[in-house]
Design a protein that fits this description.
The complex is a heterotetramer, with 2 copies of chain A and 2 copies of chain C.
Chain A (H helix, E strand, L loop, with lengths): L2 H9 L8 E4 L18 E4 L3 E5 L20 E8 L2 H9 L5 E5 L2 E3 L4 E2 L17 H7 L2 E5 L11 E2 L14 E3 L3 E6 L2 E7 L5 H6 L5 E9 L8
Parallel strand pairs in A: 1-2, 1-5, 5-8, 6-9, 8-10, 12-13
Antiparallel strand pairs in A: 2-3, 3-4, 6-7, 10-11, 11-12
Chain C lengths: L6 H5 L7 E4 L9 H10 L4 E4 L13 H5 L3 E6 L6 H8 L4 E4 L2 H12 L4 E4 L13 E4 L2 E6 L4 E12 L4 E2 L8 H5 L2 E12 L18 E4 L3 H14 L8
Parallel strand pairs in C: 1-2, 1-8, 2-3, 3-4, 8-10, 10-11
Antiparallel strand pairs in C: 5-7, 6-7, 8-9
Classes of the chains: A alpha/beta, C alpha/beta.
Chain lengths: ~220, ~220, ~240, ~240
Amino acid sequence: MDAREIIARRAALELNDGEFVNLGFGMPTAVPNYLPKGVSVVLQSENGCLMMGPTPYVNEGDPDVANAGGQPITLLPGGSIFDLCESFAIIRGGHVNTAILGGLEVDQEGNIANWAKNAAKNDFSPGMGGAMDLVRGAQKIVCTLQHNDKTGESKVLKKCKLAVTGRGVVNVIITEKAVFHVVNGGLILVEKDQALSVEDIKSCTEASFSVSPDLKDYRMSGINA
Amino acid sequence: MDAREIIARRAALELNDGEFVNLGFGMPTAVPNYLPKGVSVVLQSENGCLMMGPTPYVNEGDPDVANAGGQPITLLPGGSIFDLCESFAIIRGGHVNTAILGGLEVDQEGNIANWAKNAAKNDFSPGMGGAMDLVRGAQKIVCTLQHNDKTGESKVLKKCKLAVTGRGVVNVIITEKAVFHVVNGGLILVEKDQALSVEDIKSCTEASFSVSPDLKDYRMSGINA
Amino acid sequence: MSKVKTIEEVVAKLHDGATVFLGGFLGVGAPLKCIDAIAASGVKDLTLMSEVSGMPGGGFDMAILFKNRQVKKIITSHIGTCPELLEEYKNGRLEVELYPMGTWAEKVRAAGAGLGGVLTPTGVGTLVEEGKQKLTINGKEYLLELPLSAEFAFIKGYRGDKIGNVQYRGVSINSNKIVAAAAQYTVAEVNEITDVGDIDPNLVGTPGIYVQAVVQGYTFDEHKEVFNTRWESINALKKKK
Amino acid sequence: MSKVKTIEEVVAKLHDGATVFLGGFLGVGAPLKCIDAIAASGVKDLTLMSEVSGMPGGGFDMAILFKNRQVKKIITSHIGTCPELLEEYKNGRLEVELYPMGTWAEKVRAAGAGLGGVLTPTGVGTLVEEGKQKLTINGKEYLLELPLSAEFAFIKGYRGDKIGNVQYRGVSINSNKIVAAAAQYTVAEVNEITDVGDIDPNLVGTPGIYVQAVVQGYTFDEHKEVFNTRWESINALKKKK
């Protein structure tokens, strides 16, 4: 199983039945494929709807029903549509239960960086889109990212190097190796890959963290949870 | 013809064809009865609609169509409905062309008082309702009031004595005796009752005013205009 | 996980001293059955927040709550229409906090939308300024108005589904859509409870994300009769010739 | 006094250097015919204001305006989806001003609603803070964000009547409803122009008070075809088995 699937299966366990959920681009979009039995959630698309459904078939796209990527979607029964002010009122106002976002970096203070490749002005960043609103607004922020970059450097840092999306906003960090909770501005290791020791996690993680007295093996929806 | 009808007939001349108009309680509500031929305006009700029509008949009231006084109305073709945030966005945002309001007092600086019987704290004022938003928002504010109170005191003052609704907001003052424009914080007499001299107007008016070089006889829609 | 509840269940959640939004505008779009149940519950020392007060003439809408002396304070833009309220106020038993109508709406919207406040030109140079921070932006003065939220909101919709989506009808949308978003526990009283999927997504005025309970109010036929009877009783309808 | 005009008439009002809102979100709900006419007009040095930029893949929606080098500046939340825009940006010919998506929407709403600004927690502690006033309300920090308005807005509606009432359909309401209120001259491109009275007052998304011109866009059938063709070309639709 690749890292992306591992992470999506773990992230699915963060969702409770009936929750309103916003999923960022990339890895988080796979999460609904792995919802545990009995858990159904309502997906918000920040361009203006709740109750997003699957992609329509060729020639059956509705020209006025699309997701935040400009791609055609369907709406499930019980769906609702609203303008962008309302959509971000829902987000900023704390009405979304959980947002699962991809991170470029995350750090031990709960800062997340996921919009600019670096902090320099001539970086040609694509822009923050709705990410800054989401990290300030959703009740629970789950940051998903691979534990290390291609050169093996930790993406779970003492302090983000990239321009941050929000400070002290992350509640849960999920990598393919470990799960951390962010509590009072510090990390607690709550789950780890069964094949790795706490020392192994320490050696591939730049951030400091404490270890939960209740440390568990890494759980994955549909596999061992 | 009583003072109220005189004022309503004159106020009707302030409206241009196609304008969006908000009418305050009291005298202003009679203005639509006297619109000049060829002039049709769209009435806003600040509780949330445009294109207010006449009162429905007994048993024909729609329980969800009412005006800002809680009274049943109808909507004319082309009507629209919106919530109160939107209704006051329309008002505050400067989208209403003209508001015609009743005044308790008005003064030579364009201040208007029409919400509190006096400025004291224990006055049991009914509250300002939407009047403060209207006077700050509509493009043209027309203040209608009788020139003098029952004891003969001028209601067109040097300085309002009652708690004001807004400062420097009035553009046109219409009484049954005279019409003033407020320009650069001073009054200009532009029309007067034909039977009265400028001196007569001066003697019944506390406010200072200059006289327009183009001073006209008082005009009334359907009578002499 | 249906949000459909009985009016008794939701009113039982209230407590003495609770802060409560009431939707509607002078009775139009008011959650009439919930108001009656709040009156019957005897809960007291309420802080009511309502865009305006009761329908002119009294004896309707929120009037009963003042008559029963259940209200300690009202936060609104206008109190002149409800005789029962005025009676309480003049006897010194009711605290009144006033905001201009548009400001009231923006304060509530700000609370629901997670804003820290809005700058409005309304009220500059008036008594409304008192105690408020004033900011000058591009040479123009504005008042900083802060968010207004409550523990409970009782709103009135036309149709509501089991997951809390609410469709409004006519001007009854008034303050209902706004207050629905600004309370911790929002109760939608509706003329008709529908199955999920029965409301066109384009017609949802308040999405279920804002709503914790849906209760059956007057049916639409009863609703029409209640208002036509009321309006006839205060001579608000034209007589047929 | 019908507001129905030709696209040529309204586009002729633009001038070099104009500030222009474009409604829509990545092409969905975009005023496609007006955009093509703006491209054909050759007007230049435009400041575009759009919630996001063109539909991923390029060659659609606002992309042509960047390809033609008609845009001097864009004020938006995201530019990563439109290759023609990125080309201009990387070559130093385009100025980009970024705001978080929800902040962008609130700034435009504030302009339309006559507010002097709003306080938002979004962006606190980030690069977005730069140059902005920070206020602390009840111990929490907020950024003061100022109104954003333009001379022109081009929006896309489903139906529009002769006095400018606009009905939206689906998520195409997105930024259209917001920008419609914040421009001096708002043009509504619609699939169908109707007589006054044909749109149910409950379904009016943007009342005519905000709209100066109504123009005929693609018919609804054409509109469906344009999007299904586009989406098929970028493999965004599921293949039938």
